[in-house]
Amino acid sequence: MSDRKRDMAIPSGRTMPSEERLTPPVWPEGRTAPPNGRFSLIGTRTRKIEGLAKATGQAIYADDIRLPRMLHAKLLRSIHAHARIRAIDASVALAMPGVHAVITGKDLPEFYGIIPWTQDEQALCEEKARYVGDAIAAVAAETELLAEEALRAIRVDYEPLPAVMSIDEALAHPERRVNEKSAEGNISKQVHLAFGDVEAGLAASAATVEAEYWYEGSTHTPIEPHCCVADFDSAGLLTLWSSTQVAHYLHRDLARVLKLPTERIRVIQPVVGGAFGGKSEPFSLEFCAAKLAMITGRPVKILYTREEVFYAHRGRHPMRMRYRTGVTREGKLTAVDAKIAIDGGAYSSFGLVTTYYSGQLLTAPYEMPAYRFDSTRVFTNKPCCGPKRGHGSVQPRFAFECQLDKLAEAVGLDPIELRRRNLMPANSRTVNGMRVTSNGFPLCLDAVERASGWRDKFRRLPYGRGVGIAGSMYISGTNYCIYPNEMPQSGVQLKLDRSGRATVFCGASDIGQGSDSLLALIVCEELGLTLRDVRVVAADTDLTPVDLGSYSSRETFMVGNACLDAARKLRHEIAETLARRWGCARDQVVLANGVACSTRDAAKETASVREAFQWTEARIGTLGSVGWYQTPKLGGDYRGGTIGASPAYSFTAHVVEVDCDPETGFVEVKKVWIAHDCGRALSPVAVEGQMEGSAYMGLAEALLEEQVFKPAAPHHGPGLHHGPSLLDYRIPTSLDVPEFMSIIIESLDPEGPYGAKEAGEGPLHPSIPALANAIYDALGIRCDALPFSPPRIMQLLAAGDARARWAAARPKVLARAAMTDAKRAR
Amino acid sequence: MLTLPRFEWVEPRTLDQLLDHLAAHAAESLMVAGGTDAVPNLKHRLHEPRYLVHIGRVEELRFVRDEADGLHVGPLVTLADLARHPVVRRDFATLTRAASLVAGPQLRNMGTIGGNLCLDTRCTYYNQTFFWREALGFCLKKDGAVCHVVPQGKRCVAAHSSDTAPVLITLDAEVEIRSRAARRTVPVESFFVADGIHNNVLAPGEVVTRVFVPARARARIGGYQKLRPRGAIDFPMLSVAFAASRRDGHVADARLVVSALAAKPRSVTGLDALLADGVLDDAAIERIAQAAAKQCRPVINIPYDEDYRHAMVPVFVRRALREALGLPPRAAREVVTA
């Protein structure tokens, strides 16, 4: 399929297949208001409902599942970065006692991929391996050790091919074709979009800054490696337990690759130990375990080693970004021009979306009169990149927020003031046509400025210490499903029973972010239950209605809305029952903390919620309800204009304070002030956890993590991961985490459940540029390339007149601050 | 997850049983105490022994005795116990510091002083899984014939990575070594040899049975500085140990060891000349720092890159010396007024 056709297939605002879109019910009391006049649980500090089970080791993860007669399987992986597979001889392995089956690419030839237009992966490479670690064959045996020993007995006849290891090589050598599904050469996807007259804007600017930025790439490092267990029963039903964050998409792709009807497949997501986007598409292990279970008639488990998690990857893309940005003398943005090259690794994954996101998600919270981006994703012989927390937009945000810092200096403005002069109001439209509703960004800026003591610190701290600011926005889910259809994005079924208990069924994936607790909280709030009274059944394709999964920060907004509607329908029935019984009005009925009463005479007109359920069941029959969420039609009226469109956007600002050691290049982050507009914090503890976790993750990517590969050398080929282990790929220990101060800003989004928006990914974005800007304040060096490792800092310090720049930056700001102070005094 | 290879488990209860086993099967045996180094290395197939000899039940190797001639420490004493032992804390504070900087608390509760001394050398091309090393084409330390750090090199340059060894050298410590047939004592400094494949003098059948720190080292001032990216877990990318006796404002018996660069810790030579009249002032510190940098040549066996690690040698030497004098790592921050 040509690139052009692929693009045509993407639904845009204009070409949506149906004008008849489901719209959520309109509640007279509104979506943001508490059902009882005030909240009883929402906004309070509660535990995650599964927290205790996790803390005590009782939670069942995929690797805890052990079925009778279960086999263990292992994958054989390519030792070459790029090689044709001429032949595979598994006869010796198959003859080993205890080895039950060996499969290769020929057994699973169907191509798959998370984006229907770019299906370019096979569970096991059939003709070619495209990176060191690409899966080639799988062995099922009685034990893990035996399976591993059998792998070593498999002979693969490789024909090594020249490899492509960087963006430049990929572009320079189209003949070294990494991925045969590409439209041309090594181009995975290109997007050029322009809004307004960029060149005129730049020409009319009082100051312009042009710079190149490099984001090196990083991986997710969830503490739980990928794991699955497959069981194929005698009735022909395939059950797969998998550590996935997208059970529904996995369900569809299993059917496609295994050539089974979807109704013969059940996917269950057990408790997941972290994902961060690294489990948001199907992986080789799921197809291989299922196929091996079908062949052997025995359950099969595959647990990736930590090294294999590095090869499965789908981490943040390396990006080389050149930005030209202009401002007026007053500090108003005039135009933004971006040219972005993206290293995608060997396959497409979400790359089509990544390429759009690299440009589409930059257009708030600042107003841009003109904007243009030109993004190209290329294939290289490395593990495939994909979505990591803040998919596609963390890298451009890093570059752009550093640009703003430089522009502020160029026109002599405090960088917070420069941002204030470009704020986009609530209920407005971005230059690329995205609808922005609630917007708490101005409050975020105010909050971090005040809390951090910014005015006493910026350009005033001694050499080596500094502060930096950055802002960002992010989506609360995207407005279209990955495969075009007109069905809701999220569904919830709710069942109440006579014991006073609610069970909520939903396809949502709790990957630690708390969607199970979210479901429970909303049901409790609406029906007056306590958290002990609610059971959550989630992410089981046999039992739960479809939710598209845990990606794009969609769960709180979409699952939350679906759940709120399901619960409110039953709440109204129960209130009706009580109103009839007591002879009061329906809106005089209160349900809270297990008790029902009227506001008219709470002492007399009172019952337990359990009794209320029973009276309602007697009145209308068995109690159940459904809710769903479907996005409104959103986005710009151009091809790709729906990508980046979201029903609501979250906003974040960070101030980072650092203490740098100019002798060693070590950067110590002393404290981070994070203000995040999540609409309404349904669970403040969960929101703060996401804010801190995001900031921690961003800082780690900037300071410690190195997702790099060894180049070819005299005695070895290219493409070896530098250190695919948690010893060599350094994520922070508890001792390396700075102090965080999380400030929640609540803008009450009119379409969110009780006004809520996302909190899981947005708060990551500013951490990297705020850190870079703080290092500039501390040392006078611009960290335009990640990582900001000690050797890199020392190189920058050695490279020139850093110390002079540091000194020169001071008086300007200090003089200006003095002027402002004098003005205020008058 | 990564599997352990197949092996036979041997668990002697006495030193005699251990030495008997080694006398017969040394070449096919790997000794394990806390397992913090051996277990991951087994999972990476860096060792494929027929016998895994667990020495953790040989109780006679677990002791700390403070005697007139010095401190006697059994090899099975854990790094955590060593670090918190009151005599070590009082008389050999630098040893407490070095032991406390190994890995993390859980690993220090398992890892032993004997294991830390006998720690296998480390290299970015060696401490990897079997699969990774197969894709590499292996290396001369294990399963292969070439060196990837020094492509023409015939000798392994994997890095000595023990935190405690450099400090023990500055304290003139010795190790007692026993085999079925003999007992010998060697200074810790001579315990190590410049061969990354096997970087100590232990012959097949020999076991470290005691670490001894002489009484004359008790009063020494000292410092230990470790370059590592994180506050825990990481092996040293560069380590510097210093100790000296101090009398009447002058220092004597100065020892400076720089390690984690090559297979053997390097004792910096010529200290007496650099310490004119035993005065350890800023100028002397600077002379020693520069001399150390001249004597050390890092290679790209472990991260970070060799130029950076070389540039850090004088910085960390300065800091170790300042630590010994009770000074902060850096001179006071300059205050710049705008």
What features would you describe in this structure?
- Chain B: This is FAD binding domain-containing protein.
- The complex is a heterodimer of chains A (826) and B (338).
- Chain A has 826 residues and is α+β, with helices and mostly antiparallel strands.
- Helix content of chain A is 29%, strand content 23%.
- Chain A folds into three domains: 31-60 and 488-629, 2-Layer Sandwich (Aldehyde Oxidoreductase, domain 4), CATH 3.30.365; 68-161 and 232-272 and 279-302, Aldehyde Oxidoreductase, domain 3 (Alpha-Beta Complex), CATH 3.90.1170.50; 402-472 and 646-825, 2-Layer Sandwich (Aldehyde Oxidoreductase, domain 4), CATH 3.30.365.
- In chain A, strands 3-5-1-12-9-10-11 form a seven-stranded mixed β-sheet, sandwiched between helices.
- In chain A, a hairpin with a 7-residue loop joins strand 23 and strand 24 (606-608).
- Chain A starts with a helix and ends with a helix.
- In chain B, the strands form three sheets. Chain B has a five-stranded antiparallel β-sheet with strand order 4-5-8-6-7. Chain B has a four-stranded antiparallel β-sheet with strand order 9-10-11-12.
- Chain B is globular, with a radius of gyration of 20 Å.
- Classes of the chains: A alpha+beta (826), B alpha+beta (338).
